[in-house]
């Protein structure tokens, strides 16, 4: 299925976010302290510290997540859509699910970039990080699932 403009734009944005934070981490690696935040509590406060090598692992996880979601986008027949796929609705439903995956990818990449930047700078997360992140992820999913349900 041909990618729609929204999906292409979200994929480019996601790649730019991941590439940007990866290059930034490489450029400032020598300035990052040896101990960085490993975990944040629900209020965004640092509650565990560890070696800065964990930033590499976190960046690798972000890239792997992007890759896996991209792979899933290429195999629409494997998606559990929640609605019965027919010849009449196949195109509509798969386009909407493609939008879901690409926007979710963008949101998740933005979350990883925010966390990586905060950790590299040894800063707490905003108290708004968790509510915004959860609202963005679940709001995005709800929006597209409602659209899919209506498109069936």
Order of helices and strands: HEEHHH
Strand order of the largest sheet: 1-2
Class computed from helices, strands and strand pairing: mainly alpha
User: Percent of residues in helical segments?
Assistant: 55-70%
First CA to last CA: what distance? 18 Å
The count of strands amounts to: 2
The percentage of residues in β strands lies in: 5-15%
Major β-sheet profile: 2 strands, antiparallel
Main attributes of the structure:
single chain; 152 residues; mainly alpha; two-stranded antiparallel sheet; 8% strand; elongated
Describe this structure in words.
By secondary structure, the chain is mainly alpha-helical. Helices cover 65% and strands 8% of the residues. The chain has 4 helices and 2 strands. The protein has helices at residues 5-28, 53-73, 90-120, 129-151; strands at 35-40, 46-51. It has a two-stranded antiparallel ribbon with strand order 1-2. A hairpin with a 5-residue loop joins strand 1 and strand 2 (46-51). The protein is elongated and about 55 Å long. The chain starts with a helix and ends with a helix.
